[in-house]
């Protein structure tokens, strides 16, 4: 590709609204341009990077036995109502009415559509297992789009769906996808971890997220200091064993705490350890009020609440709801003498608190010398808090450490969540109708490109891994007015293309400094510069990753490139 007519507008200055490196570099290197908040056009350079990732994804999916198809982005509301997700999915679902007032949504995912396709056309166990995938634009109305294409409202995604006759078959399909994802992200040159995760609005139980390690990651990974254990912080179980002190139980006493609403204010004013404080948080779980208790130095994990109740929706109670159910404003609520309409559940750490402090359900009042099971009744003691750094690893090996990660892939075991709701059944060998067992497997293609840049850049620009670089080589003619340089550049351009290389040929009438700066910014793996030694048949070869520069005679250029490619694996 000749750069003179190639749409690759580079920027010298960092855009003021670009917060993270990948967003900055994708704008500066001419990969993307913003159309509106959370909406981006991929320019030719960015499109080629997307296609390189897509090609890797297709190769590994096909190798795993999956079949590609393409489903509509627009989905009728009836399908989502049939699965029960029309109301449960939330405001991120982009909904609209057509000219006939029929309700539709722009698909954020395609469980409903694929389930109807297989339901209507696959009837026998002899046709299963089956795995179908697509690469398509998805839509989610993000409350706050940010970080460029890492959190946008329109994005490119690969989503796959497996259908099996039993759990054993699903386990095999899941393992194939897990292996395929491992191959995909390894080939993309990423440092990643597969972590145990929560399935969220998709549904299902067994699930892993593929997380690219990055300081700007929006998800926290809890991992063991001494093993391969890794889990999303939302799902990591706490296995800490708590011991109850043998101090004498004192009488319950209400006391004044004017304007002391937070744990920090109580700790400071009363000179008491957070471990003595009982934090009470009111949630609305599928319209039911639930008071959740944790120790003052811990944080409530709402995902664990959702799993305990097998709930569709868990939300923090509003101030109005808190007053309605607790007869008190937030900041002073507690578990003593709570209405029977409110469930009270508590973290294991609360059970061993002796002579603690909690809200008295009265403004500016708290109780001291509070003791569980004596002064209040708990429906169930559970693991309800977020794991912390320094906690024992759930696998019994080492202690928990934290790292940030960018989610680029997610694999789910859906089970019969959709097949039962939507009647996707098959006839087994005995002619008995049974629901298909489903799995779901997603990869954010555009997210993966951004994650690659987050992990592969320096102060000059992007440093593309060879497997996903938009072009293999950047050929630069320093001075096209020089006959020898122009002739050698043109000959090399033709020769390299004939050898199967993707070449970006900088044939622009720009100063050498501009060309070199742009080349470093774009970050193709190898730069070949035709300059003053063109008359001798000598060119300069620069390896972008190592900044290694060597002079090579054109007779040895192809063998030099081959050696470099071999070193890259």
UniProtKB/TrEMBL annotation:
The keyword Cytoplasm applies. Residues 33-465 form the Aminoacyl-transfer RNA synthetases class-II family profile domain. Gene3D superfamilies: Anticodon-binding domain, Bira Bifunctional Protein, Domain 2. It is found in: Cytoplasm. One of its GO terms (molecular function) is catalytic activity, acting on a protein. Pfam families: HGTP_anticodon, tRNA-synt_2b, tRNA_edit. Keywords: Aminoacyl-tRNA synthetase, ATP-binding, Cytoplasm, Ligase, Nucleotide-binding, Protein biosynthesis. It comes from the Bacteria. InterPro entries: aa-tRNA-synt_IIb (IPR002314), aa-tRNA-synth_II (IPR006195), aa-tRNA-synth_II/BPL/LPL (IPR045864), Anticodon-bd (IPR004154), Anticodon-bd_dom_sf (IPR036621), Pro-tRNA-ligase_IIa (IPR002316), Pro-tRNA-synth_IIa_bac-type (IPR004500), Pro-tRNA-Synthase_IIa_type1 (IPR023717). Its EC number is 6.1.1.15. Belongs to the class-II aminoacyl-tRNA synthetase family. ProS type 1 subfamily. Consists of three domains: the N-terminal catalytic domain, the editing domain and the C-terminal anticodon-binding domain. This is Proline--tRNA ligase. It comes from Anaerobacillus alkalidiazotrophicus.
């Amino acid at each position: 590709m000749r750069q003179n007519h190639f749409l690759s507008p580079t920027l010298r200055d960092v855009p003021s609204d670009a917060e993270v490196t990948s967003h900055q570099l994708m704008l500066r290197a001419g990969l993307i341009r913003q159309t509106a908040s959370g909406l981006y056009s991929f320019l030719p350079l960015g499109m080629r990077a997307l296609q390189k990732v897509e090609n890797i994804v297709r190769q590994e999916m096909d190798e795993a036995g999956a079949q590609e198809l393409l489903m509509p982005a627009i989905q009728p509301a009836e399908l989502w109502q049939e699965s029960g997700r029309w109301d449960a999915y939330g405001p991120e679902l982009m909904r609209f009415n057509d000219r006939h007032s029929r309700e539709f949504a722009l698909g954020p995912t395609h469980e409903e559509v694929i389930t109807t396709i297989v339901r209507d056309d696959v009837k026998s166990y002899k046709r299963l297992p089956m795995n179908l995938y697509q690469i398509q634009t998805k839509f989610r109305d993000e409350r706050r789009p940010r970080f460029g294409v890492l959190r946008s409202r329109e994005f490119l995604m690969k989503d796959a769906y497996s259908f099996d006759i039993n759990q054993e078959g699903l386990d095999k399909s899941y393992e194939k996808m897990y292996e395929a994802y491992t191959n995909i992200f390894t080939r993309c040159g990423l440092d990643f971890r597969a972590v145990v995760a929560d399935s969220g609005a998709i549904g299902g139980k067994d699930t892993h997220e593929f997380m690219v390690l990055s300081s700007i990651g929006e998800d926290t990974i809890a991992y063991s200091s001494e093993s391969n254990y890794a889990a999303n912080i939302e799902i990591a179980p706490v296995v800490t064993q708590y011991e109850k002190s043998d101090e004498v139980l004192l009488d319950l006493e209400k006391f004044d705490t004017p304007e002391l609403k937070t744990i920090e204010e109580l700790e400071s004013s009363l000179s008491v350890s957070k471990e003595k404080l009982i934090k009470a948080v009111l949630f609305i779980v599928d319209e039911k009020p639930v008071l959740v208790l944790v120790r003052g130095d811990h944080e409530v994990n709402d995902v664990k609440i959702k799993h305990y109740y097998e709930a569709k929706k868990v939300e923090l109670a509003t101030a109005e709801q808190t007053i309605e159910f607790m007869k008190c404003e937030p900041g002073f609520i507690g578990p003593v003498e709570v209405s029977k309409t409110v469930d009270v559940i508590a973290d294991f750490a609360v059970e061993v608190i002796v002579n603690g402090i909690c809200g008295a359900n009265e403004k500016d009042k708290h109780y001291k010398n509070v003791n569980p099971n004596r002064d209040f009744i708990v429906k169930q003691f559970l693991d309800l808090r977020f794991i912390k750094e320094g906690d024992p690893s759930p696998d019994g090996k080492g202690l928990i450490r934290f790292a940030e990660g960018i989610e680029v892939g997610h694999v789910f075991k859906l089970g019969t969540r959709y097949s039962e709701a939507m009647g996707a059944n098959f006839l087994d060998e005995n002619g008995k109708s049974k629901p298909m067992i489903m799995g779901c497997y997603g990869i954010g293609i555009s997210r993966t490109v951004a994650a690659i840049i987050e992990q592969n850049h320096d102060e000059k620009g992007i440093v593309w891994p060879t497997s996903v670089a938009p072009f293999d080589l950047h050929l630069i003619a320093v001075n096209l007015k020089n006959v020898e340089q122009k002739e050698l550049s043109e000959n090399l351009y033709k020769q390299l293309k004939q050898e199967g290389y993707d070449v970006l040929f900088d044939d622009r009438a720009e100063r050498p400094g501009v060309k070199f700066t742009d080349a470093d910014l774009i970050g193709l793996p190898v730069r070949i510069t035709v300059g003053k030694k063109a008359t001798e048949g000598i060119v300069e070869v620069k390896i972008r990753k190592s900044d290694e520069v060597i002079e090579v005679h054109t007779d040895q250029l192809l063998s030099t490139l081959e050696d470099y490619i071999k070193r890259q694996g």
